[in-house]
Amino acid sequence: MAPYEALYGCKCRTPLYWTEFSEKKLHGVNLVCETEEKVKVVRDSLKATSDRQNSYADLKRKEIEFQVGELSPRFIGPYEIIERIGPIAHRLALPPELDWIHNVYHVSMLRQY
């Protein structure tokens, strides 16, 4: 069963089902070729749009990497990085008065001191 049929309880109204049930037409290669061409046009348009959006996003994106022991101020003072958790997360040595704050931060929240 197709997902559409499972969700709505009836068959999807694709071009194959647009004819009346009493008509005994054999849908030829033309319909399949037209559908494949339209799918290709849509796929190419989506790819072009995605590439354009990625090129705009890449202009603002920069590779940031910190090592254990570096300082990283952000709003409330410089704190030492005590552990690197994967490529984008770092654990900071926060003072005791900031125990209520989670001490693991994304690399985008840190700046080199």
Automatic annotation (TrEMBL):
Pfam families referenced in this protein's UniProt entry, alphabetically: SH3_Tf2-1 (PF24626)
Domain Tf2-1-like SH3-like stretches: 67-113
InterPro entries noted in UniProt: SH3_Tf2-1
Family matches, as PANTHER family: CHROMO DOMAIN-CONTAINING PROTEIN, GAG-POL POLYPROTEIN
The protein, known as: DNA/RNA polymerases superfamily protein
Organism expressing this protein natively: Gossypium australe
